[in-house]
Amino acid sequence: MTEQTSDFFHTFTLRGTYTGKKTAGAESDWRNLNTVLDTILEQLATKPWNGYKTMTAYFTNYRVNTNNQIECEIVFQGIANNIVESKEPNESIQEATPLPFRTNFIGHFDANNSLDIYQLNVQLPNKLAIAVINQHQIQMNWILYHEKNLKNPVAYAKFQGQRLFETYTAQPGKYYLYVYSYDNRPGGYQGLVTIE
């Protein structure tokens, strides 16, 4: 993957080789390749990171390999905005939204949605810094659980105005960040989890 940054954009390009089915002739192969790309882009658009919505993709260097299969280069390009958007449903650990470190995350609460759960994967012992901004002054909080004890939180937010923050020295494993509202008013939040 290559990234490019300018005064106005931060973009990425990801290249790889695609090997498909047996060839049915160039024209039919291109129709099939377009269907494959459409399906991939539709599936990616359902993922939490909203950068997939701006992504484009194309095939180049079409050829038939020695096994009589379609083979070509596949290229994905898009804006690298590093924002994960809460996707419903995510009210259980099975539906938790994966959250990479150093990636902004955003969500919104209303009368029908008062909980968002994010999954963090810690590979090595690290000190995590968790910060969430309450954008609309609603009653909200966050707590952090380790996968081995989902009844007792390992970290709670401290409040400083609209900022909910805390640090926690995490051991390897999966952690679940519960961001929740407790007043049923609509409002949004933005957060970031970093490794110190």
UniProtKB/TrEMBL annotation:
Residues 2-81 form the Collagenase ColG-like catalytic helper subdomain domain. SUPFAM superfamilies: Collagen-binding domain. It comes from the Bacteria. InterPro entries: ColG_subdomain. Gene3D superfamilies: 2.60.120.380, 3.30.980.50. This is Collagenase.
